[in-house]
Specification:
The chain is built from 18 helices and 11 strands. The protein is of the alpha/beta class.
Length: 422
């Protein structure tokens, strides 16, 4: 995020040298106008970078140590950019209020001044889309479709920036800087929303087998139709299933097969909406896969003493990792489930334990033992300070354990997690 904030504040540095700062903040009107300009400059750059973060680039996946971290920063940056752009006109209108309420009101009336109209349209679209995100619970596919209109909001924001009479129009360096980042964001967002299938590499598979592991969980096995997708155990990908009764939009799932298996497997829990329809999949249905993504892998860590903690369906990346685990690694796996019948792959983990003396499998039945916690794991594993900890499960599960480990003195750099809540 440091680089993002540096890029976002460069326009303010350029702006600050265009006129003496004393003149820009000489009175209330000048101060409010200057703040409006600053918020507009920073907000526009952040809006542009936010669209770049949504491009699913592998280099960003590596830089942020996981695409889930990229999307988390995308969400935070989007909220900041929206707030800045919302206050941008509110500060600018102050100078009109001091001498004419009518002029202040006309500032927000569209179709009087064309560049201002484009800014108003952009802001209205953003307000509507943000309202959908935070106040209206939409189905994922509808929300995803509505989110694409953010590109339209950005397009009008770019038009507003190009044609409005401002410091951007008076300083070529500032103008080229803002518009270069804006056009990059615009190109990437158009590529992502309209020409996605032409630019993002996908692997074609087909469904080979569907196994019902319990009443809520399916295992979907797929075989390649062209090139096999290489991945590290613990990574995830975006899957788009083409079949009757299943929506074709892509969704992220952890890969539960190992990287040495011929076929690809994912393990999916019925959480409603999209996942509830995966029961409709049939053998030979086509699957398009984009990936792999993520930095959640035991191979990414030099420390070979590790603790893995799974909550519910968060067991899937650990199953992938455990099947190909080298004997040189010493791993304690804690698998927390509400009741034992939910523990998919219990038998397989017990078999891995028998073959690998350095792999220790602990099934944690919440109904019998209560919630698992950091102190219990410390007492069981004995060497918490010297081990790296991997967490995967519901967001509250991971946040709670992470806080507990930090309070127990575990270095934050030794706690690794993957959050699909994006």
């Amino acid at each position: 995020m440091f680089i993002i904030f540096v890029l976002s504040f460069i326009p303010v540095i350029i702006w600050s040298f265009m006129e003496p700062l004393g003149a820009r903040f000489i009175n209330l009107n000048a101060t409010m106008t200057s703040l409006g300009q600053i918020f507009g400059l920073i907000g526009m750059v952040m809006f542009s970078i936010n669209l770049i973060l949504a491009g699913r680039f592998k280099f960003l996946d590596k830089y942020f140590h996981g695409l889930d971290k990229v999307y988390a920063n995308h969400s935070r940056l989007g909220a900041i950019a929206f707030s800045l752009l919302l206050f941008h006109p509110l500060f600018l209108v102050v100078k009109y209020i001091t001498f004419s309420l009518k002029q202040a009101a006309l500032f927000f009336v569209p179709f009087i001044n064309t560049p201002i109209t484009w800014g108003i349209i952009s802001l209205l679209i953003m307000i509507i889309l943000i309202s959908f995100t935070f106040y209206i619970k939409l189905k994922y596919n509808i929300w995803k479709m509505s989110h694409k209109f953010m590109v339209l909001a950005f397009f009008f924001a770019v038009l507003h920036t190009i044609f409005i009479s401002s410091d951007v129009s008076r300083n070529n360096f500032l103008r080229y800087y803002i518009l270069s980042i804006a056009f990059l964001g615009l190109i990437i967002s158009i590529r992502q929303t309209i020409f996605n299938k032409f630019f993002i590499k996908t692997f074609k598979y087909k469904v080979k087998n569907i196994s019902k592991l319990n009443s809520d969980i399916l295992e979907i096995e797929m075989e390649k139709q062209n090139q096999k997708m290489d991945f590290n155990p613990g990574q995830f990908a975006f899957f788009s299933f083409i079949g009757d009764g299943v929506s074709s939009e892509s969704h992220p799932f952890s890969i539960s097969s190992s990287n040495i298996e011929d076929n690809l497997k994912i393990t999916v829990k019925n959480l409603g909406d999209y996942t509830s329809h995966l029961n409709n999949l049939k053998k030979d249905d086509n699957v398009f896969i984009n990936g792999p993504y993520g930095d959640f892998s035991y191979k990414k860590i030099n420390n070979k003493n590790q603790i893995w903690i799974a909550g519910g369906i968060g067991i899937t990346p650990f199953f992938s990792m455990a099947k190909g685990l080298e004997n040189e690694y010493k791993v304690d796996l804690y698998y927390s489930v509400k009741e034992e019948k939910e523990a998919v792959y219990k038998k397989e983990f017990e078999e891995i334990t028998q073959k690998n003396i350095n792999f220790n499998f602990n099934l944690w039945n919440v109904a019998e033992k209560g919630y698992i916690n950091g102190e219990l794991i410390l007492n069981s594993s004995k060497n918490l300070d010297g081990e790296d900890i991997f967490l995967c499960g519901p967001p509250m599960f991971m946040e709670s354990l992470k806080s507990q480990f930090l309070s127990l003195g575990v270095d934050a750099k030794k706690i690794h997690y993957e959050n699909f809540n994006f």
